[in-house]
Amino acid sequence: MILCLPFMMFQGRAQEAIDLYLSTFPDAKLLEIMHHPEGTEIFDPEASNGGGTSSETADHSPAASPDDTAAMETVVDWDKTLVATAQLQIGGQILMIQDSLVKHAFDFTPSMSMAVVVDTEEEFHQITTSLVDQGEYLMEPGDYDFAQNFAWVKDRFGMTWQINHPRGAPNPEDADSAANAAQAKAPEWS
To answer: How many domains does the chain have?
Structure first.
């Protein structure tokens, strides 16, 4: 069986994101979480090569060892340690979440969004209000030709969410409804 899951990689803020998403989505469940031990080090490739020194010219002698520690950042002052892996379920969809142990220049991009279909206007406003706190709207909440209410939100972590309250909102009792799409199973091939 093939399973395709969104994988969200944070830079030291995965636990904060999990806490936000658990408080934002009414049906969100934390299925599993494992943390790295306290004191886990985050590797910074820029610091390890002197912010641009090529690997051929870098001094790898024992005398360079004090500089080697500049590439590591020890995490000891956080209440929670870094997230090694977590599974968060929202609307029947499982999201994989982790903190990267390597600092990187890339981040989330709006070209990839989580699409969330809601049943009620209240739920729409509660979710969008929570996600936009310290974030921004990429499309303001409103009535669009394709939705009764729609908003495209970039949250405080840079993750984008498209929240949709469609015209003729999903009916959980209707097997063909969008409300049941997330629970659909992958086909079994014989």
So the answer is: 2
